[in-house]
Amino acid sequence: MSKPDLDPSDFASALAPLGEATTLPARAYTDASIYDREVERLFRGEWLCAARIEQVPEPGDFLSLDLLGDRLVVVRDREGAIRVLSRVCRHRAAELVNGSGNTRSFQCPYHLWTYGLDGRLVGAPHMDAVPGFDPAKCSLPEIRSEIWEGFVFVNLDGRAEPLAPRLAPLGERLAGYRMGELVAEETATFDSPFNWKVLVDNFMEAYHHIATHADTLEPILPAKRSHVTDDEGPYSVLVMPTNETGEAVLPRQSLPGLSDDQQPGLVAVAVFPFHLFAPGPRTMAWYQLLPETVDRFTLRIYDCVPEDMGAEERAQSHELLRVIHGQDIDACEAVMAGLSSGRFERGPLALLEKSIWQFNRWWCERMLPGD
Ligand code: FES
Ligand SMILES: [Fe+2]
Q: What is the third-level CATH fold of 8-46+175-367?
């Protein structure tokens, strides 16, 4: 892995006060060595969202997930606890399971080694003839996880600061949305040929409603009414109040700490590096990013809905998410082409892009040399 060229003076303008600040330099979106450092520090070193708890509601329910090359399985054990385990057999590395389902144990298809739902090896044919073989040393590695508002987060390198205390103020702010009670339904998967930060930037600001979503979001969630809170956690909160037209579609919600005219119809939250979700009056969009390379990731969009929502309303809600993201794809692809052109260096941020400024400060703190 080559060492990225990260001269702090190149990033000084991103760290300037809002109103003077710029974007990160284009290289931050296109340089593979910078991406490698992101993988190490921001992805493996921080908390990533792996699943929602309701995707594994019953003991024995499991869900496979490939995250940064790591082959994982999210499982609810006999006691009802959610664990995230490696799904690579401890014998000779065969993949134990794929997809999702319900099981009493994980049995390797290669030589039938069998693991309990807690990852312990409980059966290994003919291995009792091997002197010194100790099944206790062959458990599946468990990945550190935390649950917050129904989301299952993992920390791959096991060294991140605990997540819950850092998200506590965010949880209080969003308590009215009862996010933990919604049920995630996968609505679309997109092979996304642009840097992951292009989508995160796009998700966090409403400035682009005036053009990209001129016919969809702007008429009900006008860009100029949006604002980003001053919260200082590892996240940003974009509040999008509705106008009168929007009231009918997205009634106001009440968030603590906001005046009446700031109360949102929709909120877009980014928990850095890339856990993106947008709670509204009835539903919550959840964007799950699965990074692959500096210029490619898979995006799964989930619509999280109340259990009692009827089929027609669900279908409309899912369709709206697909339409909105279709518009965002065009914008993100255009941005990635520009970033890759070699001509663009950095650009000034609008005040409406405060969330990007917040994210860039977080990014620089973790990515620039100085340790
Ligand atoms: S590789 Fe799994 S039992 Fe041999
Ligand atoms: Fe958008």
A: Naphthalene 1,2-dioxygenase Alpha Subunit; Chain A, domain 1 (3.90.380)
